[in-house]
């Protein structure tokens, strides 16, 4: 699923359509009145987290690329698009395998730009307040919560928790105030590292934890597990990533060995 920086790249690639009038609209997306789009000018192209937004005078289009969505500018795939927008000079904008929904035109009334990890309006104080309002939430879930860190995804989660040396099964409330602030700051910092590396086609080369087998700090195998409510893949080091609070240890019974939280073996 494309994360926030990838949607910013999409928005920047589409900037040339801003101010232009849609002359043709089609697709197989249900619930979209394609005829109502024709003749409307594109007032703005915006993004919030993983949402790409096309703002028109009477409505807005929200496009979510889901897991396998894609787009083409002045090109077509050998498939029927979910949404295809045409313009008077023959230019076109096509979206495939995605979700397309219509929204009221006032996007500022519907989105809190202060929690978007890529937005100019990002406000770390607001984000920190939202984070601290969920003291029992696991940090692996908090990193993926779009109401706290809009635009962050599983890569963010694994890389940032490794950067700040926090185990994914830690709870938000067990982190110190300083560690909570570090968590928020690194989510924002990683967003722009991601964007820079993605544009240079070297993002994967900079992964330290995501999908990796060996911890680059400790030179021991990473653990891999599907953790939290989301059950998304987590890659983490049990030596340098501290769990807050410490994992409970099962009492030792005669003839048994102590056990703590189980994780899947590294793969």
Whole-number count of domains: 2
Termini separation comes to 22 Å
Q: What is the typical, i.e. mean, pLDDT?
A: 92
User: CATH first level of the largest domain: which class?
Assistant: Mainly Alpha
Q: What percent strand?
A: 15-25%
General shape: elongated
Order of helices and strands: HEHEEEEEEEHHHHEE
Give the assembly state of these chains: single chain
What strand order characterises the main sheet? 1-6-7-5
Rg result: 22 Å
CATH architecture assignment of the largest domain: Orthogonal Bundle
User: Which percent bin holds the helix content?
Assistant: 10-25%
CATH topology of the largest domain: Helicase, Ruva Protein, domain 3
Question: What's the layout of helices and strands?
Answer:
Elements: H1 4-13, E1 24-26, H2 34-37, E2 44-48, E3 51-55, E4 60-64, E5 70-73, E6 83-86, E7 92-96, E8 99-103, H3 124-132, H4 139-142, H5 154-163, H6 177-199, E9 223-227, E10 232-236
Antiparallel strand pairs: 1-6, 2-3, 3-4, 4-8, 5-7, 6-7, 9-10
Helix pairs in contact: 1-6, 3-6, 5-6
Domain Formamidopyrimidine-DNA glycosylase catalytic: 2-94
Biased composition (Polar residues): 257-267
Catalytic activity: Hydrolysis of DNA containing ring-opened 7-methylguanine residues, releasing 2,6-diamino-4-hydroxy-5-(N-methyl)formamidopyrimidine
